[in-house]
């Protein structure tokens, strides 16, 4: 993404830039949420999933990405020095790629135990997390923008925003 952001850029300005760029790229935003204490997100129409994957994950074949018939593309916006909850999901795996901003941090584990080790992802880096794998996205010194694809693992009951088991959360959720 061609965004002009730094650690002092206002959240609303970042969201406006992302919305403009997504529109220019032909993506349809179905939901936008700027109210999250860690930043926020854009949910794109499911019909944009193949185009989204081709743009942000060109190194992956659709056969590698698609577990069931449903994929959900999103853009995550993580604020400087903020952390999403230490969490996992019952009905989805996830793929993330840093597409703008500075680096972001990621913690992952197969157990509820959160390690002190933070893996740094530079712009262009991506990571895949399996269903049930514990993870946390962390904003480091500046804003981070991450392309995310939800890989729904249960064709009968696709994942949604309620499919989050929070093990620790800085915001008391």
From TrEMBL:
Keywords: Isomerase. GO terms for molecular function: isomerase activity; nucleotidyltransferase activity. InterPro entries: Man6P_isomerase-2_C, RmlC-like_jellyroll, RmlC_Cupin_sf. One of its GO terms (biological process) is polysaccharide metabolic process. The keyword Protease does not apply. It comes from the Bacteria. Pfam families: MannoseP_isomer. Residues 56-168 form the Mannose-6-phosphate isomerase type II C-terminal domain. SUPFAM superfamilies: RmlC-like cupins. This is Mannose-6-phosphate isomerase-like protein (Cupin superfamily). It comes from Arcicella aurantiaca.
């Amino acid at each position: 993404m061609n965004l002009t952001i730094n650690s002092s850029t206002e959240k609303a300005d970042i969201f406006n830039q992302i919305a403009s760029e997504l529109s220019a790229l032909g993506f349809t935003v179905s939901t936008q949420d700027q109210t999250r204490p860690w930043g926020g997100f854009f949910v794109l129409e499911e019909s944009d999933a193949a185009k989204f994957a081709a743009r942000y994950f060109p190194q992956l074949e659709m056969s590698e990405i698609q577990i069931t018939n449903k994929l959900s593309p999103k853009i995550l916006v993580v604020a400087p020095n903020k952390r999403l909850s230490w969490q996992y999901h019952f009905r989805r795996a996830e793929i993330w790629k840093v597409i703008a901003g500075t680096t972001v941090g990621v913690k992952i584990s197969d157990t509820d135990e959160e390690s002190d080790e933070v893996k740094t992802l530079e712009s262009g880096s991506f990571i895949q997390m399996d269903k049930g794998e514990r993870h946390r996205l962390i904003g480091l010194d500046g804003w981070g923008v991450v392309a995310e694809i939800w890989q729904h693992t249960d064709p009968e009951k696709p994942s949604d925003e309620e499919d989050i088991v929070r093990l620790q959360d800085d915001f008391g959720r």
